[in-house]
Structure formats: C-alpha cells, structure tokens
Specification:
- By secondary structure, the chain is α+β, with helices and mostly antiparallel strands.
- 45% of the residues lie in helices and 8% in strands.
- Helix 1 runs antiparallel to helix 2 and helix 1 packs parallel to helix 3.
- The N terminus is likely disordered.
C-alpha cells in the first residue's frame, strides 16, 4: 500500500475540530488553500483523510485537490520529521551554496539535515528551516552547527 493511502492515526478531537472548522468555509474551489492551511494548523500537516474531506466538502476531484496541495512547498503532506533541519535547494539558494551546506552537515553524521524545495525567500539565500519550523536566512555552516547543537541540548 502506498504511503499516501496508508491509514495514519488522527486524534478524534482533532478530526472533529477540523470538520467543524471546515464546515464554516464556503463550498467553492477557490477555498482549497484556506482548507489546506486549516488542516495544517490543526494536524501540523495535511493528512490524506483531511485531503479526502476537503475534496468531498468542496466538491473538487481528489486528483485536483492533491495536485494543488503538492504544488505548494509550505504545505506538508507528511508529519514533521523531528529534529531535522532543512536547507532550501531552490535556484537562488543553490547559487549561494546550499548543496555545499547540506553536504558538509551530512558528512558530519552528527546532524539530521535534508534538502527541501524552494521556500521562496530568494533574497535571503541560502535559507534553512529549523526543527521547529523557523526560517533562517543567509545561513552559514558554522551558524547552523551552533543552532543545531543548541536545539539538541535544549538551549543549555
């Protein structure tokens, strides 16, 4: 069974809250993005069950809902990976050495670092998303190492 179709546990109270809030949105296709943002706010990501509810509620084909969802890099289609830091690898960040940063941190085997699609903050390249979703611009390896270590120790 694919990752997308595998059932993931969602708390009943979260689902009730989501359905209640979703019902207050107008039933028009133009409300796809607000629906996604609502799901991400409640669940921390946009789970498949929420995508199906959104498609049914807005009367938009599931394939179109999924296509729209995956077109926006700020929308998460998987739960957060705890303790990971993400380096933007969009064109501007690549030009400013993002791959080099990813490689240096990955080579250290001490840090949980991955690349991520464009974060649309090109003027701040290279950009990093920390383990709590915070954005950092014009990052350098030494700053990231300090930030990651501080995060791992709880800021001690």
């Amino acid at each position: 069974m694919s990752e997308w179709r595998r059932p993931l546990e969602i708390a009943d109270h979260e689902m009730r809250e989501f359905i209640s809030e979703l019902s207050m949105i107008e039933r028009e296709k133009q409300y796809l993005l607000p629906s996604f943002h609502l799901a991400q706010e409640i669940f921390g990501w946009v789970p498949p069950v929420a995508v199906e509810k959104i498609a049914d509620f807005l009367r938009v084909p599931l394939s179109e809902v999924y296509a729209t969802l995956t077109a926006y890099s700020e929308l998460r289609i998987a739960p957060d990976e705890k303790d990971y830091w993400f380096i933007c690898t969009g064109v501007a960040c690549e030009m400013k050495g993002a791959q080099n940063i990813v490689q240096q941190l990955a080579d250290a085997d001490e840090f949980k670092v991955r690349d991520i699609d464009c974060q649309f903050l090109c003027s701040l390249a290279p950009v990093c998303v920390d383990d709590s979703g915070g954005l950092h611009g014009r990052v350098e390896v030494s700053e990231l190492i300090s930030g990651i270590r501080e995060s791992q120790t709880g800021g001690e």
